[in-house]
Design a protein that fits this description.
Oligomer: single chain
Distance between the termini: 21 Å
Radius of gyration: 24 Å
Strand content: 15-25%
Largest sheet: 5 strands, mixed
Mean pLDDT: 85
Number of helices: 8
Number of strands: 12
Helix content: 25-40%
Order of helices and strands: HHHHHHEEEEEHEEEEEHEE
Length: 357
């Protein structure tokens, strides 16, 4: 997926991610004073910036900006960046914004590879949910034990509306991959099936690309589907077995990974958003057991409870029922949603939609 900023990114990020401190004297170039002599000033400027926000009408916004200022200023004081390093940082963030399009969110990708997305997702999934663990301390696998499905990152490619599909539909519109059936139930934490629950599903194709990355190759909506559970809370659909793939490396985030000697790969997975009336919405994945990179996901999103067996199945009769060639792979799992504390409790924090970030 190309962008209009490839030239800028090659100069502003790929070659400039390294630092040159050979001429760094760690002095204030505007005053000629040493870092130690300017400590009092750096403390005062932090206080001044925080104080300037006292009139912010929204108390939560005031809290966030004040904390951001303190931590950002503390980072600057701790690391003492040179002017050249500061300019590179500004250029990197500029290039990150320029790489964003209607179908690509480079800032979400940056948040992902820095582990921020996973941290925010985990904090929000636990906020207000009370005791989400099962009686035996397990999570995500056993509805009978009262466990709920764990959340993980949204990712940068939930950028288009999934088409509504009938249960049993094939979301792999181009073929070429190993046939697979995904089936299970959507349940409340007490094990009650949830009819009419909605599952938003999306995945990369067998080659590791999402539809929005290959508009000339994949039809819109390939690898995506919006499913509604039946009267018993069941869902099932056909697809191909996902494969590990690299996150986009042709932009600033790719340059960052290269500069830090990190690989860009994600383990094989399928994305889900599960929702039902009176329950908390969960954003999650299922990961293919045995996939490469389960222990080194580039976006730190793997949780043990989300790793599922995609079982090799040789059953002509069952294959006929599902409408897939035999043999095929079959993954069975239940998506367990936590109940809302009260009917008026929102299922997500009162914050801007992440896709608009």
């Amino acid at each position: 997926m190309s962008t209009d900023t490839s030239t800028d990114m090659s100069t502003d990020t790929s070659t400039d991610m390294s630092t040159d401190t050979s001429t760094d004297t760690r002095t204030d170039t505007r005053t000629g004073t040493s870092a130690g002599m300017s400590d009092a000033f750096t403390t005062r400027i932090t206080e001044a910036v925080v104080d300037s926000m006292d009139g912010t009408p929204d108390p939560r916004l005031r809290e966030l900006l004040a904390a951001l200022t303190r931590h950002l200023h503390a980072f600057v004081r701790e690391t003492g960046p040179t002017m050249a390093e500061w300019e590179r940082a500004v250029a990197f963030l500029t290039a990150t914004g320029q790489a964003c399009t209607a179908t690509r969110q480079e800032f979400v990708l940056l948040s992902d590879v820095l582990g921020v997305s996973m941290l925010v997702e985990t904090i929000n999934s636990e906020r207000g949910a009370g005791d989400r663990d099962g009686a035996d301390g397990s999570r995500g696998r056993s509805a009978e034990a009262g466990a709920v499905t764990e959340s993980t990152v949204l990712g940068p490619f939930h950028m288009t509306e999934s088409p509504a599909r009938a249960l049993g539909a094939d979301i792999d519109l181009v073929g070429g991959g190993e046939p697979c059936v995904i089936s299970g139930r959507v349940l409340s934490r007490d094990g009650t099936p949830l009819p009419g629950a909605v599952l938003d599903v999306w995945q990369a194709n067998a080659e590791g690309f999402y539809d929005v990355q290959q508009p000339d190759v994949q039809p819109p909506g390939n690898g995506r589907g919006l499913f509604t559970t039946d009267d018993e809370g069941r869902f099932w659909f056909r697809t191909c077995v996902p494969s590990p793939y690299p996150i986009p490396t042709d932009g600033p985030v790719g340059a960052l990974l290269k500069a830090t000697a990190r690989h860009p790969y994600r383990p094989a997975h399928i994305h889900f958003i599960g929702s039902a009336e009176g329950h908390r919405t969960v954003t999650t994945h299922i990961f293919v057991a045995g996939s490469d990179h389960l222990d080194s996901d580039a976006v730190f999103a793997v949780k043990e409870s989300l790793v599922q067996d995609f079982t090799a199945t040789d059953d002509p009769e069952l294959a006929g029922e599902f409408g897939v060639p035999n043999p095929f792979r079959h993954a069975r799992f239940d998506l367990v949603l936590d109940t809302l504390d009260t009917p008026d409790t929102p299922d997500t924090p009162d914050t801007p939609d992440r896709e608009e970030a």
